[in-house]
Amino acid sequence: MVVAEVKQEKKYLRRRFTDTGLRRLGKLLRSCREARGWSVHELSEQTKHYELQFYTLAGEPLPKVLGVSIAGISRIENGYYNKPAPDLLWLFLDVLEPVHPVEQRLLTLEDLLLIGTEFWNPNV
Fold first, then answer.
1. pTM of the model
2. How far apart are CA 34 and CA 39, in angstroms?
3. How far apart are alpha carbons 5 and 11 in whole angstroms?
4. How far out from the chain centre does Cα 89 lie?
5. Tens digit of each residue's pLDDT (9 = 90 or more) over 36-63
6. Within 12-116, where are the H helices?
């Protein structure tokens, strides 16, 4: 019975980012950046440095573009980035290491997706 309830609950989860969810996600990421004392430019540099290390250690070829641009960070933080890709969100998770406000654990990709789809509001 419990499995059926969980399946039923998941069936109705919103599967698309919403404007409100994207603004909440951006606000969370901005607060994580500001908590570290980084400017948008510094976060951009950190994402580039992180990806360079990641691909070098993995022995994989470098992509044409490393990290997240200043404009990209600004769009995400202001909620104007319509469909952030999982690899972009993972990069923010790895660099910013955001902490769950209640459980005091690192946030996961699933947490960010839940915020972006308005299933979870971290400000409550």
1. 0.85
2. 7
3. 10
4. 3
5. 999 999 999 999 999 999 999 999 999 9
6. 19-35, 40-58, 70-77, 86-96, 109-116
